[in-house]
Amino acid sequence: MMLVVICPKCKNKQKTNPKVVASSIKTCVYCGHRFKIHSNQKKSRIVKKI
Length: 50
Ligand SMILES: [Zn+2]
Known about the structure:
Elements: E1 3-6, E2 13-16, H1 18-23, E3 25-27, E4 34-36, E5 46-49
Antiparallel strand pairs: 1-2, 1-5, 3-4
């Protein structure tokens, strides 16, 4: 399973590995911005699970 998350800076959607989410910091592949992914899905930047 992969997660789709949205970057808060450039708003690009990107796939990420759930193992990366476990460490809670994601580096945007488009702009290099580092942001937290919350484990709470309502607060998270997770768009969907695929
Ligand atoms: Zn970005």
